[in-house]
Hints:
Elements lengths: L2 E3 L6 E5 L9 H11 L4 E5 L2 H7 L3 H16 L19 H12 L9 E3 H9 L11 E7 L2 E6 L4 E5 L1 E2 L4 E4 H6 L5 H14 L5 H9 L13 H18 L17 H10 L6 H7 L5
Parallel strand pairs: 2-3, 2-5, 4-6, 5-9
Antiparallel strand pairs: 1-3, 6-7, 8-9
Amino acid sequence: MPQKAEGDGRGAVILYDDPATENLRIEEIADYLSSKLPRLEVEVRPGFFQHHLGGLAPSERERAIDLLAREIASCRVRNPFRPIWGVDFEPLYGEVEFERRGVENPSRKPFGIIYDGYRFAEALFKLIPKEERGLDRLHIVFTNQLLGTWADEDGRYHLRVIICHIPCLISTTGVVEAPAKPKEFYRVRRMLEAMTGGGVDYPLIVKLKEGIADKFIDYGDDRLTEVLKGYALQAVFYHFLGEPFCDDPDCRLFNAHRQEEMIRAQLGSERELCERHEGMLKEVGR
């Protein structure tokens, strides 16, 4: 059953769980947001698809899944150096069936497919009932899918942790894959590749990661939930104040591009927010 922390009815933050990420403790994130936003209602729901498809009649549910699977398949990034916007591409039957299985069983692990984050969010938006689309409600969907956005500056897609849209998407896989790992990781990996003539065996990668484990977040990392609290807060600032990021490296709203920056902002700072954003947070929910 959904868990709910009651506020004063002036707005709501709705969190959707990701059943595929075992080390995501979504109730902790809800409690954290409730402590920061005492005048807003914070609600925890099961996975996005489970919640919004579960209550439909069988025939309506089948039609919704068929449409959703096709739209998600159309969100795939097939070439990271070419944007999918404006491209009239009909997804293959096998791709649609793959996405259909993902909608019906969202607890399975990701397969390394990158999706255009904004297109993915727009596909999910259509499932949100009209009465829940008001600006007084923030929907935050945790997902294990890899999400990216196109950058005109260098002409390619970049992986992202958070997609600020309606709904806001936060990628648990993106926490691991989007921010760059420490420089020594790539330097040693290149050395190993040169020594082995190409690929590096998985055990060697594990050994390499063990030596710098405190400098990045990996799969199964118990620090994931604490990191995600900061990204959930970014979603709050985006939706209610239109300002999700900060230039202060010790503020949880810092737009980190490297793992070490993310860890500093989310885990290493004595203060959570800079003075300016601490003051802005008090305005939310008034």
